Amino acid sequence: MNQPKTIIIVDDDDIVRIGLRTLLTELGRYEVVGEASNGRDAVRMARKLEPDLVLMDVGMPTMNGIDATKRIKSAVEKTKIIALSLHDDSRFVTQMLDAGASGFLPKQGAVEELPFALKTVEAGNTYLSPAIAASVLTHFRHGEGGGAVSDLSVREREVLQSIAEGKSASDIAKELSLSVKTIESHRRNIMKKLDLYSVAELTKYAIKEGLTGFD
Questions:
Q1: Is the Cβ–Cβ distance between 169 and 183 less than 8 Å?
Q2: Measured between alpha carbons, how far is 30 from 32 in angstroms, rounded to an integer?
Q3: What are 50-86's pLDDT values in tens digits?
Q4: How do residues 126-158 score in pLDDT, each as one tens digit?
Q5: C-alpha–C-alpha distance, residues 21 and 77, integer Å
Q6: What letter does residue 2 receive in the DSSP assignment?
Q7: C-alpha span between 176 and 159 (Å, rounded)
Q8: 53, 6 Cβ separation under 8 angstroms
Q9: Which of 95, 102, 150, 193 is the most exposed place for a label (fewest CB within 10 A)?
Q10: Other CB atoms within 10 A of residue 25 CB
Q11: Contact at 8 Å (CB) between 83 and 102?
């Protein structure tokens, strides 16, 4: 008998995690070895457990799914990541794929699509829900880029998300184990790269680009 695939569920909604865990249990081929409600905890858990698969929410507090995916793929290359989102904006899809995700599907269709998405990804292929595939193809055909957010480093994106979530420089410094001076330097660099010069502008930009847990 084949060993069950190990999997981590990452979502800031308790009800969603329960639903996904129930579905995976019913499928019988997967062992849920961990659950996390934000990207930062997901990265720590993935580094420790090295799961076969991660189901990753895109919009979460503390660290979003895009940046968490980048960090997990950098630390545990073998782990396959499938993104789940309430949004089907092609920007979110392409950013998740660029970060290293192997699949993307809307939460609305997760129950019906997830079993096939899992098999597709396990076989080494990329799964895109039919509901979003057309918009992603249009995105690439028109040559649309990811915007200036692609100019930011992972650390800068992390700081930007924290700023947008209303955290002070001292709070961010404590959370990231950095000095306040370093956080302020990151903020200046972010503003310069994005050509935005107020916290309000940064917050609006971060929400628009899907870098926060806000819907």
A1: yes
A2: 6
A3: 999 999 999 898 899 999 999 999 999 999 999 998 8
A4: 888 877 766 665 555 444 444 467 788 888 988
A5: 24
A6: P
A7: 9
A8: yes
A9: 150
A10: 11
A11: no
